[in-house]
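Example 9 (inverse folding). The structure is encoded as follows.
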């Protein structure tokens, strides 16, 4: 028993020494962080933050931001568990470092121990933002929209003036059918200087679900910024038609054409409007006008082909609705003759569309159907070969 007591007494001083409080040392905190000892680095920086003198030093909070951002982004779960709120803490520390350094002419930095080059706070923020962007992109590739948005939101908080994170978040939220959220991301993207027209596509789509009039307003705003874009006028016209404001769309186009009679786009959209209204002859006329100005206008040529195909489609539907009586059989036979003639009329317009854009599957599908119904074996084999070349034969 006496020997055990002696041993206990011998150990006590060591325990007392081990419990001595850490002395605050900023350089030590940075060194521990650079060595990857995040647990010890956290302990040291926490002590530095509590020190009356060091708590007024901008470097203290800059280093704190470094350490806590590493705790948040590390893959080591033991380190990560040391600070569950590490992300918010890192941002708060960086913000405090900015406040304390606001009157200085020099940006906060640390020296990389390998290259001996200065690493500024701006560079740190860029790296931090990039980390969350990469994590978000990786999650999106795995269809993990929730994790992707969490990371994109963090990138926005780290670098709120950047456009990339808002755009990516808008795309993901839209894919996740969170349309209002997607629209808000895109508004922030544009506000920060983003220029991709896809942002407007997302916003228009979101608005159209509840307020098509608002969607039209957004489409018109976008048209002013992207006057050469061909999709935005289509969207505007589509919603005007859905709101039974077709005459408004048509009247606007006709008025614009008086000022710009050689504007191919305006002729095309007037054709598109008439097509949507069921005025197929007027649609054909406007397409022809567009093609007179620009014979290579693919959109006009495709719409012209569709306009000529309408009659054939109507007859085919009529044939499909007939029964099996002798009278129906006779009627089907008569209609089939008319159907064949209509196909022959439409065919050259589709073939011309193919010449302008030989890779459009919509045109190839139409030609395959027409060749099939005309029993044109040469044409069928040609389209099948084209499908194979484009990898569309599966």
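The amino acid assigned to each position is listed next.
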């Amino acid at each position: 028993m006496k020997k055990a007591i002696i041993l206990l007494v011998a150990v006590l001083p060591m325990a007392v020494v081990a419990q001595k409080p850490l002395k605050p040392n900023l350089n030590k905190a940075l060194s521990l962080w650079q060595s990857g000892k995040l647990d010890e680095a956290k302990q040291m920086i926490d002590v530095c933050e509590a020190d009356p003198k060091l708590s007024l030093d901008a470097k203290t909070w800059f280093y704190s931001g470094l350490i806590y951002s590493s705790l948040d982004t590390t893959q080591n779960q033991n380190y990560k568990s040391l600070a569950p709120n590490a992300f918010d803490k890192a941002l708060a520390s960086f913000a405090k470092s900015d406040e304390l350094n606001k009157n200085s002419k020099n940006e906060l930095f640390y020296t990389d121990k390998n290259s001996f080059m200065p690493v500024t706070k701006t560079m740190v923020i860029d790296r931090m933002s990039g980390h969350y962007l990469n994590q978000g992109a990786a999650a999106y590739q795995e269809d993990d929209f929730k994790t992707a948005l969490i990371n994109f939101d963090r990138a926005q908080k780290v670098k709120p003036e950047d456009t990339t994170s808002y755009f990516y978040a808008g795309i993901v939220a839209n894919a996740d059918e969170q349309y209002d959220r997607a629209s808000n991301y895109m508004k922030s993207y544009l506000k920060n200087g983003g220029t991709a027209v896809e942002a407007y596509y997302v916003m228009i789509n979101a608005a159209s679900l509840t307020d098509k009039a608002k969607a039209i307003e957004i489409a018109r705003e976008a048209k002013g910024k992207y006057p050469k874009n061909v999709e935005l006028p289509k969207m505007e016209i589509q919603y005007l038609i859905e709101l039974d404001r077709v005459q408004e769309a048509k009247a606007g186009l006709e008025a614009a054409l008086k000022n710009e009679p050689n504007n191919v786009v305006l002729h095309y959209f007037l054709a598109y409007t008439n097509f949507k209204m069921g005025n197929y002859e007027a649609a054909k006329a406007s397409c022809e006008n567009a093609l007179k100005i620009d014979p290579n206008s693919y959109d006009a040529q495709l719409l012209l082909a569709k306009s000529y195909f309408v009659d054939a489609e109507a007859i085919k539907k009529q044939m499909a609705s007939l029964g099996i009586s002798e009278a129906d059989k006779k009627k089907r036979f008569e209609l089939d003759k008319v159907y064949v003639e209509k196909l022959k009329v439409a065919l050259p317009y589709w073939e011309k569309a193919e010449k302008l854009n030989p890779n459009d599957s919509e045109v190839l599908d139409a030609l395959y159907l027409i060749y099939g119904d005309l029993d044109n074996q040469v044409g069928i084999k040609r389209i099948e070969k084209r499908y194979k070349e484009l990898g569309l034969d599966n």
